[in-house]
Amino acid sequence: MSTGTSAVRSSTFSAAMLASIPPSASEENMVNVQVRTHDNKRIKIRISGNATVNQLAAQALREAGNTDSSLRFTLSAGFPPKDLEDGSETVNGAGLAGASVTMKKI
Predict the structure, then answer these.
(1) pLDDT tens, 77-100?
(2) The CATH number fitting domain 13-105, selected from 3.40.190.10, 3.10.20.90, 3.40.50.720, 3.90.800.10
(3) CB atoms within 10 A of CB 49
(4) pLDDT for 24-75, tens place per residue?
């Protein structure tokens, strides 16, 4: 499962990097994550809890209809909000099952 698991060790994600990450193929352990996008859209994503944060970010961009390959953004979740820094961490590992995630353009 090396595809889509390359680590992003900073809190910055880029649309160009995420474009090559395929959707999660796993149907196991499905969870819901609500994402508030950089352009203030609210989308609900159903994704495997075993998917990576990178896969979640890529799916959020696809579902939001993003076409700007130069887009750079951060993702944060929790209260108080904390930046998600490890793109290789699983959705469950990052505590995102049932959570609200905010995408901020930088």
Answers:
(1) 999 999 999 999 999 999 999 999
(2) 3.10.20.90
(3) 18
(4) 877 888 999 999 999 999 999 999 999 999 999 999 999 999 889 899 999 9
CB of 49 closer than 8 Å to CB of 86:
no
Q: How far is CA 85 from CA 25, 53, 90, in A?
A: 23, 9, 12
Is-contact 58 23, C-beta < 8 A? yes
- d(Cα 92, Cα 35) in Å, to the nearest integer? 15
CB 62 within 8 A of CB 30: no
Dihedrals phi, psi of 47, to nearest 5 degrees: -145, 155
Pairing of strands 82-83, 100-105: unpaired
Under 8 Å between Cβ of 105 and 76: no
